Amino acid sequence: MSDPIHPRGAKPRHLTPGRIGLYAFLVFAAAFFLLPFYVMVVTSFKTMPEIQQGNIFSLPSKLTLAPWVTAWAKACTGVNCEGIRVGVLNSFKIMIPSTFLSILLGAINGYALSFWRPRGGNLIFAVLLMGAFIPYQVYLYPLVRMLSMVSLYNTLPGIIVVHVIFGMPVMTLLFRNYYAAVPVDLFKAARIDGGGFWTIFTRVMLPMSGPILVVAAILQVTGIWNDFLFGLIFAGRDHLPMTVELNNIVNTTTGTKAYNVNMAATILTAMVPLIVYFVSGRWFVRGIAAGAVKG
Amino acid sequence: MDSSVSVRDLRISYGALDVIRDLQLDIAPGEFLVLLGPSGCGKSTLLNAIAGLIDVSDGEVWINERNVTWDEPKDRGIGMVFQSYALYPQMTVEKNLSFGLRVAKHSREDIDKRVARAAEILQIEPLLKRRPSNLSGGQRQRVAIGRALVRDADVFLFDEPLSNLDAKLRVDLRVEIKRLHQRLRSTMVYVTHDQIEALTLADRIAVMQGGAIQQLDDPLTIYNRPCNLFVAGFIGSPAMNFFRGRLEEGADGVRFRGQGIETPLAGYDGDTALLPGREVIFGMRPEHLLFDQDAVGRPGQVEAVVELEEPMGADSLVWLTLGEARLSVRCGSGRRYRPGDRVPLAFDISRASIFDAETERRL
To answer: Matching CDD domains, A to Z (chain A) (predicted)?
Structure first.
């Protein structure tokens, strides 16, 4: 009786102080992460004299594309002055086969472990997972020795093998969990229908793995693209990935540091992961959700 | 004996645990056999073993006079329908039906012919171009049956095919499966925990518990003459009423006395002689109790008190207390009963079941 407002219909929404605080925090956080990128972008379009004036937040007064051209084709990495394009090509050469092979292997592993349950499969999986938790540094020297023994050290196949091996635990885990959520009846039905190991894999399981394939591709593409350590150690001088070349460009400039060139080169390096995230963000979320909730 | 499916000395163990042991089962050609039991009784395991989807630890599986114990599922001449439908989500209905045939590299015309026939029998022609996600549960299960149908299987295996459907669809599809069996005359093995499905569909029911077949008989024998206490309690809804007591010598032959009941047992349809002095369990189905007017003047008549009534439309279920015992009676819905009503009650001994209290076997 004391309540003058009679509740009826949709409950009205009020902007509470908590809400306002939350939004303020989100805006601040977004700015915090976007600001460096903004500085990089504007700096890369400025001339060196303008940069030296010190207004790092101001827009370029005279737009110049020269730093981008230099970064792409003329910047010096040590003695070579061919820009970062060589590294881009190398990175693709490393990333594409490594991503493809590691995903394929992970999918096959996950499929076999989930459905065929080979004897000792759980043990193998446990060992594989344990491998994922041991720091990479531990493996470096033995791996260098092993690869040079089979003449793969400092070669393109060598670095690909390294990426595939190190990608396997996570890829296997990803696919095993995804397939664990697939009803086992589906596998049984396919066996009654006469499917063997590969038929069921390629014609039943892979076609319904879309979301998890996207997740795996995102993880591997960005992981392998951003890799510095393995590329530096295993790729050899002819196949140094972009990340290593970028480091060389940024660190070997003689005389004044060409900030605009460095910024342009860095943005170029970051381009692939950025594009992957923007294009696939929606898919990525969907894939994670698909893994959590039974379809 | 001519048999379609024969399971001999089957044992299936996981580690030290025997899920199924020493199981024998012969299924005649064209027979509809239902494996019935509570969850965990081994019925699905047995079906999977017949299908070849799990390895047997010992024993043999024969299908059509051929030892298929070591054969792959696809080579056993079987079709299987699963509870979860197990349709390939990325394929249309047509592709789902034809997948097995395409894997086996049948010719295009042969595939089309078989798919068309299955679609006609199951009346799913309008659905052929759709995907499983755009089908209702009943339609999905029809497609799943169709997938078994196109294989021209000698033996159909059903693993709780109706359990995921709502009550009305379940009844519809149950009738359809029976119709399908009458049309095809194939051997069918059907796993369920639903006794109504079992009773309505089966030529013979194998009631299973603890990895063993308790009783293998036609539905009416299982219902009327359960061979042990488990089968008696499992079959029938609501469950059979049980009274503990002992057999005694009376003026009119052997009598049962216990839990406030005393009734002569003349007319009992038993397997062995009823020896006085034995501890027994006396079982009566709710629908076989004589109640109200039917009970008046019968030998062993008692008076029970109504506890509550559950009207179910066609008939009513009345819960009664009788001394310290509680029992249920199924009766016509013509008369309503109120809690506290005192009603006469008697026993139709010809339909009773009496079990040894120790061995729990039917006497």
So the answer is: TM_PBP2
